[in-house]
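Quiz preparation item.
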């Protein structure tokens, strides 16, 4: 009896799993804000035309919740949900999918620190 999966079946299973993950809307912390982030020169970021910083140990996640390196995103405008610390530095940010962008969320510009 052959117990190995054929490469085609394995590839189809992985593609199906990845597609199912992409259609899922993530649950973000209630205190997360919505904004347009552009990484200038890490740790410097622009959030809706306001310059701020990434906190030490800040984590950025792509649409599939994989960790991103800030240096790989320099100059790219990204719609994100994000958390800030007491100093107003970004501690976590999630790049949003098209479905997630449709959800209502408070934006920067309101007193949040």
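Solution:
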């Amino acid at each position: 009896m052959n117990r190995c999966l054929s490469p085609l079946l394995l590839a189809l299973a992985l593609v199906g799993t990845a597609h199912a993950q992409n259609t899922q809307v993530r649950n973000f912390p209630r205190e997360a804000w919505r904004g347009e982030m552009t990484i200038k020169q890490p740790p410097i970021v622009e959030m809706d035309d306001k310059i701020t910083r990434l906190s030490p140990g800040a984590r950025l996640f792509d649409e599939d919740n994989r960790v991103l390196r800030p240096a790989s995103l320099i100059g790219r405008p990204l719609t994100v949900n994000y958390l800030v610390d007491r100093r107003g530095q970004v501690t976590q940010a999630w790049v949003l999918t098209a479905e997630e962008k449709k959800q209502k969320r408070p934006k920067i510009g309101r007193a949040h620190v």
